[in-house]
Amino acid sequence: MLSANIEIRDYLANLIAEYNAGNGGHFTAGRLPSERELVEQFSSTRITVRDALTKLEAEGLIYRSNRRGWFVAPSRLVYDPSSRVNFYLLAAQQNKTPATQLISQRCIKGPAETREALGLVAKEKVIELVRLRSLNGRPVLFETIYLPEQRFPKLNKARLEGSLTVLMEEEYAVQICHEDNRIRVSAVYDQVAESLSLINGAPCLEVTRIRYEGDRKAFEFDKEYWVHSAIELSIPSK
Amino acid sequence: MLSANIEIRDYLANLIAEYNAGNGGHFTAGRLPSERELVEQFSSTRITVRDALTKLEAEGLIYRSNRRGWFVAPSRLVYDPSSRVNFYLLAAQQNKTPATQLISQRCIKGPAETREALGLVAKEKVIELVRLRSLNGRPVLFETIYLPEQRFPKLNKARLEGSLTVLMEEEYAVQICHEDNRIRVSAVYDQVAESLSLINGAPCLEVTRIRYEGDRKAFEFDKEYWVHSAIELSIPSK
DNA sequence: CAGTGGTCTAGACCACGAT
DNA sequence: TCGTGGTCTAGACCACTGG
Fold first, then answer.
1. What is the homologous superfamily of the domain A77-233 according to CATH?
2. For residue range B15-70, what is the model confidence (pLDDT) as tens digits?
3. Nearest residue (Cα to C1') for C8?
4. Fewer CB atoms < 10 Å away: N or C end of chain A?
5. B50 to chain A, closest Cα gap in Å
6. Alpha helices in B123-230 (DSSP H)
7. Interface contact flag, B6 A179, Cβ < 8 Å
């Protein structure tokens, strides 16, 4: 016995599969019918229709753009966090158009977790960079980067929307010696949710990264929130 | 302006934080108040209460046990997919009690994706093992393992609930040379959802793994579905 | 058996996006 | 301004769990 929300999910999942295979004139510009249209079509209610849409969202088959509608999710960016390939190159290799927007830049004391990870003492401050990255115009990554101020004086503002790895190498002679990545499924709220056009509490993939240089001195602490349907991690080993 | 579901979320998130810090007599045995109790407490409706609970679930702060109730999520298992530490050792190191249940064992042709990954031709078959793994009695991982029948004849049934890595080393002289892991946020349905006490469409962390031996011959294909609040991946590099 | 969550009905009003 | 999704009300019945 199928429940109604699963029925609707299956129906849409089939249309999406056809659309992705290039066989479908369903969906103009990847936009799904409005929730109210689906309600009519299935003689159902918005609760049930939204249940179905939420399931498809969880699977990563569709995504929402806040109050604009539901869209078929493009193929995922495949990303190896242990490789140091930068975002622009990675996107280009996978035929996607990347963009980066610097949202804010501050010099602050910083949260305890960050200070500890970077081994800061007394009055040492951190530079906090907040950036939003997009693929083909769709925001997919909200990231906050913390750098010890002392290690990176006079950051070149003009370059903060480009690859930081390259900037750090070229202007500060950074040589990465080690990197820790922590990956978990989590949820986004407030500024993160709004920036990514998601609703409060939407699931995401959270990556926390600490980078070390020289004799294992931490020089960078990152928090990344990925729109979960936009990414797949690839981790080779040995 | 806070919406009601966020208010309820925040209220519960605070209680959960206290409970986890050991300061709270809230929640007996980690069980949250029933949805209907929360409805009364907040003069709200189940829709709104469930919105709040779903958000907490997405964050990994609570989990549901199908039709039994909502529970505070224990600390996550930290897991490095590129290390070959087996599940039992890993759990023990983190003070958790592991268990494995073999759900089914078959010899079949297998799905196309699997056959391709394993490089099977003509009538070669695969052994399909389905297992459920638990931590402290809570199911956290549903996995399907595919092995080429020709490479692993006469599998020792008695050992299929233990570490396969150890079994393969000891009885088939397998030497892993390489491994690919693909990680994505996805959703569970049907048998997977039921086995994990989740509802259809609940989010999960999906890991697809291919292992190679000798001169890059694939000998194992795995699909893992993790209850997302039960796991955090740790990926060191360089 | 009672109590839980799972699913669903049939509406309503609001905030925001596009135009 | 109109259409979209976001949030919410006030119920209902069902499936399953546990005592």
1. Chorismate lyase-like (3.40.1410.10)
2. 999 999 887 778 888 899 999 999 999 999 999 999 999 999 999 999 998 889 99
3. A48
4. N
5. 12
6. 164-172, 190-195
7. no
